[in-house]
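User: Hello! My lab partner asked me to get a predicted holo structure for this protein. The small molecule is pyridoxal-5'-phosphate, SMILES included with the sequence. Please write out the structure tokens.
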Amino acid sequence: MSKATRRSFLQKSILGGLFYTVGIPFLQANNSIESVNLDSEFKLETNNYNQIDWKKIRAQFLFPKNRQYLNTASLGPSPRMVVNTVCKTIEQLETQCSHGHHLTKKTHQQIAQFLNTSVDEIAVIRNATEGMNIIARTLRLKAGDEVIISTHEHVGGAAPWMALQKDLGIVVKLIDLDVEGEKNLQIIKNAVTSKTKAIAFSHITCTNGMKLPAKEIAAFCRSKNIYSCIDGAQALGMFSIDLTDIQPDFYTSSGHKWLFGPKGTGVFYMHKKWIKKLNPVFVGAYSDSKYDLNSLTMEYRDSVQREEYGTRNAAISLGLGSAIEFISEIGIENVAKRGRELANYFRKGLKDIVEIEILTPENEKFSASMITFKIHGKDNLKINQQLNSEYKIRLRGIYENNLNSIRVSFAIFNTFKEIDNLLIALKEITKN
Ligand SMILES: Cc1ncc(COP(=O)(O)O)c(C=O)c1O
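Assistant: Hello! Below are the structure tokens for the protein in complex with pyridoxal-5'-phosphate.
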């Protein structure tokens, strides 16, 4: 290394170290990679619903052709485009010794556009559960405050509030939902008292795939000064979501289910009216707009991305952006229509099996791309295992809320043939 080069290197190192302590400017100092060169694209000839090439879409997924996977509600496999983005980004960032934080800006823009909201209301987090924890802690509730949740919540949507009950003495009020869907808004309204501070509910329940009237619940919450906190783990990527229309206070979701994004990604939304009013619970580099250690002064960024403090995995964030591009290429309305078409086909087939009760509401207003059913007189959790081991059909047993039932997810790679196979298997099982 020449003297001049060494001097320049030292200057850069010192500046780099200095900038690291002040959050945002570090971004500017370390953005030598403007973009990652990806040739991972997916294009359809047409996204006219009746002409969509579903076989081409299926071929984008890496799992074997004969694998009958109907469990996207638990874990959505990623298409090649997403896998390529993650792998190539890691490789290029490692080549450059860069964390690539500045590249994730694109993902925020993609999510904001996908959810029809503004970029500053969006953050990429690790999963839906992390988002519900952020919400629960950010509200700074006190002993005696009430939070309403339902018996249909996933552990990730319920545990953060149960933890506050243990830690702070808040009161978690459990409500039972109407499994037909119609009465849920009223049930929620009836549970509210003068102590209610938040209502946390699933946009689509993980149990029976029931859709809740998110917009109406959010509007009711606004009218009562109650925080609306939506767990969208089973909704994001399943159908079109417009957060400007729903106007919740908070929305959290997984990236790894219906969006088919990388594992370890989630989406978090906070309505802009709260960004200045509610301080973040955890902070670090990138949380601040102004930071000076010597005078102990710090101001937070006017963006929910202050939740993305510290060094993160930019590759999976970019992969999440690719997942949105993949779905957008098909069209989210088409994705929703396909899921519903497959679900309706299955529902029709189930009606021939008298032992089976369908637990998902029939009304399309309260259902989407999942169907939960129960075979009477049988241990459904065991049957779920049998379907996996003997028939090679992967579903999910529902033990939550003692439902003793089986859930089927209908994603864009699933086929009518797979549903026929499942119906044949169920007919055989119910006969024995
Ligand atoms: C409704 C609901 N909320 C939260 C979660 C947890 O999601 P994550 O693993 O992304 O935290 C799930 C997972 O199945 C879910 O169905």
